[in-house]
Amino acid sequence: MINCINKYKIYHEALNTTEDILKITENWNKYNNFIKNNNKKIFTSQSKFESSIIEESIYRIFKKFEDDIIKVGSIKTYLNMYYSANNFNDFKNHGVFKYNIKDMDFAIYKEVKLRIGNCNKEKTINIPIIAIECKTYIDKTMLESSVATAEKIKNGNPYCKFYIVTGTYEVNKDIDMIISTHIDQIYILKKDNKNNDIDKDVVQKLYEDVENYLNSIWNDIDNNIKNHGILI
């Protein structure tokens, strides 16, 4: 266990001292391979410790986007809002708005204060603009669950990008599931199944996609009509 702690300290310090994707990936691989070789000795398979390494590494990669307004990290993310009443009389005279939330492994988000009508209680909800599920692997059942999550998140914020970052992809390649879903992309960290290492090019692609989206214009109807004759 002491050796594991020391390895983590080295890994943690490395992630905190550089923003270089290559160096981050190198140290990520070193620690990941150590855990892979010692996981059964230290952690149970139920601990989901390996997936937490993905979450922490992604947090370090995108920590630079955090400021006084924008936050990064794992959250209970806002999904949608609905009106609730106990009966017709309650519907007529009272009723309340409620909202659903869901645990998200990683998000770039902002906190929004919510107060509806004459309600004196103020709620804080987390609105993501980037939402990422982190998995050591993904199979068909897990993917179907992610499809449902992506749809709910985009019902709450259509401008949010929903990504999955997974170690390996274990869905039948003949099944084309995401093209008609709200999942924007799935990043396969170990694109070569013969190699246990995380591929730096995949990590770089993830970073660039997120950065480009955050720096892009999300809604400019006037310009699109004038220059292209289209809405979006």
Description:
The chain is an alpha/beta fold and 232 residues long. It has helices at 2-16, 21-42, 49-62, 88-93, 140-156, 200-214, 221-228, and strands spanning 70-84, 96-114, 123-138, 161-169, 185-188. A five-stranded mixed sheet has the order 1-2-3-4-5, sandwiched between helices. The radius of gyration is 21 Å and the shape is globular. The N and C termini lie far apart (54 Å).
Keywords summarizing the entry:
232 residues, alpha/beta, 27% strand
How do you describe this structure in short?
It contains seven helices and five strands.
Q: What is the fold's blueprint, element by element?
A:
Layout: H1 2-16, H2 21-42, H3 49-62, E1 70-84, H4 88-93, E2 96-114, E3 123-138, H5 140-156, E4 161-169, E5 185-188, H6 200-214, H7 221-228
Parallel strand pairs: 3-4, 4-5
Antiparallel strand pairs: 1-2, 2-3
For this entry, what is the oligomeric state of its chains? single chain
Distance between the termini: 54 Å
What about the largest sheet? 5 strands, mixed
Low-confidence stretches: none
Strand order of the main beta sheet, please?
1-2-3-4-5
Number of helices: 7
Q: Which percent band covers the strand fraction? A: 25-35%
Count all strands and give the number: 5
Order of helices and strands: HHHEHEEHEEHH
Cα-atom radius of gyration: 21 Å
Structural class: alpha/beta
Q: What's the helical proportion of residues?
A: 40-55%
Task: Please state the average pLDDT score.
Answer: 86
How does the overall form come out from the CA principal axes? globular
